[in-house]
Model the fold of this input.
Amino acid sequence: MMRSLIALGLVAAACSGGADSPSTVRLMTHDSFEMTDDLARFTERTGIQVQLITGGDAGEMLSRAIITKDNPVADVVFGIDNTFLGRALDEDIFDSYTPSAIDDLRPGLTEGTEGKVTPIDFANVCLNYDKAGLAEAGIEPPVRLEDLVAREYAGTLVVEDPSLSSTGLSFLLATIAQFGEGGWQDYWRGLRDNGVEVAAGWEQAYYGSFSGGSGTGERPIVVSYASSPPVEVIFAAEPITEAPTAAVLDGCFRQIEYVGIVSGTDVRSEAEGLIDFMLQKEVQEAIPLNMFVFPALESAALPTEFMEHTALPADPVTMSLGDIDANRDRWIAEWIDIVLR
Amino acid sequence: MKKWAVAIPAAFLGYFFFYPLVTVLWTSLSGADTSIGDVLGNAGLRSVAWFTFWQAGLSTILTLAAALPAAYVVARYDFPGRGMFRAGVLVPFMLPTIVVAAAFVALWGPGGAVGFRIDNTVWAILVAHVFFNFAVVVRTVGTLWQHIDPRLEEAATMLGASRGEAFRRVTLPLLRPALAAAAAIVFLFSFTSFGIVLVLGGPTTATLEVEIYRQATALLNFEVAAVLAIVQLIGVVSILALYARFQDAAAHSLTLVPPRKPRPGPERRAVMVVVSASSAFLLAPLAVLVARSLQNSALGWRSLGGSTLTVSPISAVGNSLRFAAVATAIAMVVGLAAAATIAYRKTRSSRWFDALLMLPLGTSAVTLGFGFLVALDAPIDLRSWWMLVPIAHALVAIPFVVRLVAPVVRSIPPRLREAAAMLGASPAQIWRRVDVPIASPAALAATGFAFAVSMGEFGATAFTARPDAPTVPVAIFRLLARPGAIPFGQAMALSVMLMVITAAIVGGLDRARFGQLGRF
Done:
């Protein structure tokens, strides 16, 4: 029985694995990846099969890529973001590739990538607020990060733990970029004294503690995305015309997602083809409604139902990859001391 | 049969459990610049280890205290709705921890139904662990209790023992193996608790499992993660050593004592109190889930086939059923071979083998997931093989199969086999004609149990399932990762579907095992 099970297994592996046949690209992605229809079109056009490999969240995916460096489990990795890219470049897991569309991307996205990875999309981590909730409490919507330490905002904010959540980490980086290496600690002491709530992850913060939109909690302000308000409209239970929540467009952190070719792949040219495909206009234009992030290609039109309820922050906070990589662990440790201890 | 039976579980666990585990720990620690001493010297990490131990111990004690009355009542008394109660207690156990945690936040969290908050406290963790593990005690202890003749205790009291003494000297020693098994399983589940601690404990609480995840995936500090995984393993092995001491290798002849109707008066009132209090405790969080799935609109239900995820939520049900079927097949083949080994060899080593089979219950899903990635790349690259999902499920289900089947096989009187041999039957024939018919009801029950365990598994699945083939718990997790009423409604609707499917399976398996000797 066991022998036949193993035999069965080997046959199944040979059929489904297909890693050795040159026309299959193994693509590792994160949990929020939603491009299955696009990939089917890619296969139809090129004959190249795409096998999806689980990556978990951005940090988990990088862990997987590092730990399998000697015998990579994927040929292409999509979804490592700028909070982790510095570490990925240190570990030297990607081969250089410059797609021809690189000059058509929005300015600033390729900064620090050393030609190793290509930006595909970006999101903005911003404060979101519950319009009705704030109005009921007679509180003005915040317009800047500084507002939140004011007395009237006591007990209104919920954030994600930066040591467990990439959303939380992005917000911490936004505050550090905004208030500087010498000032962010005082800002967080102010938030702590104002009763900031810390949730394990985005799900718990948004659904569990936030009062706006589909949230079921009591706090009217949450750290989420600039794209959350339009998503509330698109996925509303009954059709609505106005978003129940809004994003504060000041002090947003720009989270960039990259794709890269793993060093030592046997399918280099197929991998390049996949990256070129991901930058094609039609694929880029489908990104907002599939993954609720913004396309990297500058000429990609943004869907109106999306843009009616949000906007691109005029001046998002950015930080160099080197700074993030050199200080991330220390900042998180300091944050834990200030906010949790 | 007997000789090669041990080879199946040994090979399976060896290749898919011990080999990945050892490889990942070795890889992470070799060439490390962090020494074990550095990690153990870190006060923060030491307090995480200490917290992990005491909350698991306390969870175990509280679960035993809360569930033993229900175990006794189910074993001894016949009351209206007994079958439903027995099946119902298993539903929380099968729910993915992320759903249990969400239900608890809905009850006891901000704006919750109860009116006061216990989220972000250790109480929330403890109560959730009791809720989650209630069934383990009721089923393990209750099933054995059913087979202990109350006349034994009556005889002791007639001979002058007090009721307390009779319980302590007669019933307790007979119950000991089941109590030890239940306590060990509850401890292991609480010891490696992840989702419940993450969501309910608040940002300042962490178990070793949470810390391993944080170190490995957020701080990318593999050495520290590996050291913590070793600390966790040491804890698990010491508990299992204790468990092995309490497992009685000797067979007790078991006779099923049919439950009787409680006498009117205080006895009936006591039974009613136990049943209704237990039901209220278990039903409240489930009721909240159902209410949310309905309130967050019929829309969640109507759109289950739709496309908020490119993989429709309903197709996740298909994936789950397919994985569960394969996982059950593997768990039965390996589990039955292991049960036979344990039952036929009444030696010290078989007791250790029994304890060893429980090890996967107490091993970090994160560690094993990384272990698969590091170890299973050669000679054939199995790392993205779909079978890894059912294999990981089978690792969790096998201990339950063994616990259900081994006691039954062991209770088969040797003279039956001897008689068959004297009449000229070959060993294979004896096995087919004697053991299989007697053990098959318990095996049937184990089949359903393994199936349900697979349906609810989340930790290892999240690590191994391919993005285009999510199971129901993974789909729930992914739906909850985006805003909007429709995804939230779908997540709640899927949770309810999972509950219904689970309850149907458990109800079916209860009828199949009615009147059998299975000791869980």
